[in-house]
Amino acid sequence: MVKSFLLGVTPLLEGFIYLGGILMLHAEEISKDVWWVGGLDWNERLFHGYATEMGITYNAYLIMDEKVTLIDTTKKPFASELIERISEIVDPSKIDILVANHVEMDHSGSIPEIMKLAPNATIYASAPQGINGLKAHYGDEYNYVGVKTGDTLEIGKRTLTFVQTPMVHWPDNMVTYSAYDKILFSNDAFGQHITTSKRFDSDNPYETVMYQAEKYYANIVQPYSMQARKALDVVRTLDLKMIAPSHGVIWKDHIEDILNAYESWTNREVKEKCCVIYDTMWHSTELMARAIVSGVMAAGVEVHLYDLKENPQSDIMAQMMDSKYIFFGTPTYNSHMLPSIAGYLTYVKGLSPTNPQHHAMAFGSYGWAQLGPKEVHSVLQDLKFEIMSEPEMCNWLPSKEYLGDLENRVAELVKSLKEC
Ligand code: FEO
After folding, report:
1. Does residue 286's CB lie within 6 angstroms of at least one atom of ligand 1?
2. Cβ–Cβ < 8 Å for 218, 351
3. Beta strands in 111-172 (DSSP E)
4. Helix axis angle, 206-216 relative to 313-320, nearest 10°?
């Protein structure tokens, strides 16, 4: 492996980035005898369609107690990075306990590599979904123990408590709490897709961290807001010094901020904010979109304009989630909406943001059949958004007079709905 790496063979093709033994990779102590030993995926830019412009961090944590305990692992190509960091603290063969909070492979992918080094370690995961999922992915030859909410595990000075958080965001998810350290190892919950050299929230720009946390929630957790709400209620009962998620920075100085943000997001609260989302062929629908933006601005409401050709859907969703007003624009194309807007609306449906607080409206141009905007209108009705108006449609090219009138009508409409 070393040889192929040095010869320039793409390591990812081998499914394993060999960093151990070549680079000095360090563990970071986040609390007395609790070490961050994760992987930094600086250059990952796409995760299942989610634009990860700041990369991804796969956080894993090593607790040095009487029983050496590893909380989660990394995506498989980062196994050597994980092992190198662990090795700085302890021989990996000494690992007694591996807590797998979540089956998804960005956290469990390095389990086989860890178990090769520590074959007698016991893997704790939620029962039955976590155990079943791990066996499906990695076989049943390991020592598995299934746990449920309220189960505890003594590892020395510390007692770990497990809380199942099903559907946040897979059926198997759970979180692990160390009362001794006052740390909640929250896995995906409270995560953000950020790669950074600084492990803690306040060592990174606040606005960036909060935006990435919101983007993560909007695109990953949102469909399970009801379940996230229940998990949040449990988290609120804990004495917390840190929330250590499996992605991004560790919450230490802004714990209350992220809990309050989750409170708002799980309640599906919206702001006086607007997204105008469209695609266009010969710019008629774009002109309509810009007139709508001017109308919303005239109503004194924050507005964001997104051409679907230019913006990742995950970025749009990050803004759309808490927008009260949403306009969707498409021309009629072969008797339908454009495939780009159909794709985005399918993405929206998957995230099931059924929220009557979203006020939506379809718009767009047409040549000989008013079909595209009407099709979007029908989807918006299916999504159970509050429909602001019948579809706004313009034949062929919008005139200056038409655009001025559209701007004025949108301004009046938004003003009438403000603070309602
Ligand atoms: Fe970060 Fe659901 O995996």
Report:
1. no
2. yes
3. 122-126, 143-147, 152-154, 159-164
4. 100
**Residue 82 Cα to ligand 1 middle (Å):** 17
Tens-digit pLDDT profile for the chain (420 aa)?
Answer: 333 333 333 344 344 555 556 778 999 999 999 999 999 999 999 999 999 999 999 999 999 999 999 999 999 999 999 999 999 999 999 999 999 999 999 999 999 999 999 999 999 999 999 999 999 999 999 999 999 999 999 999 999 999 999 999 999 999 999 999 999 999 999 999 999 999 999 999 999 999 999 999 999 999 999 999 999 999 999 999 999 999 999 999 999 999 999 999 999 999 999 999 999 999 999 999 999 999 999 999 999 999 999 999 999 999 999 999 999 999 999 999 999 999 999 999 999 767 778 999 999 999 999 999 999 999 999 999 999 999 999 999 999 999 999 999 999 999 999 976
Cβ of 246 less than 6 Å from ligand 1: yes
Find out whether the beta carbon of 169 lies less than 6 Å from any atom of ligand 1: yes
Query: How many angstroms separate the alpha carbon of residue 104 from the centre of ligand 1?
Result: 5
As beta bridge partners, residue 183 has 178, 242
CA 374 / ligand 1 centre spacing (Å) = 37
pTM, 2 dp: 0.94
C-alpha 89 chain-centroid distance: 31
Ligand 1 pocket residue status of 188, Cβ below 6 Å = yes
Whose tokens are 């409170």? That residue is 263
Structure tokens at 167: 């559907």
Residue 122 to residue 100: CA distance in whole angstroms: 10
3-state helix, strand, coil split of the chain in percent (to 5) is 35, 25, 40
Roughly how many angstroms between the first and final C-alpha of the chain, as a whole number?
Answer: 63
Tell me the two tokens of residue 131: 């155990």
Query: Residue 272, Cβ neighbours under 10 Å: how many?
Result: 15
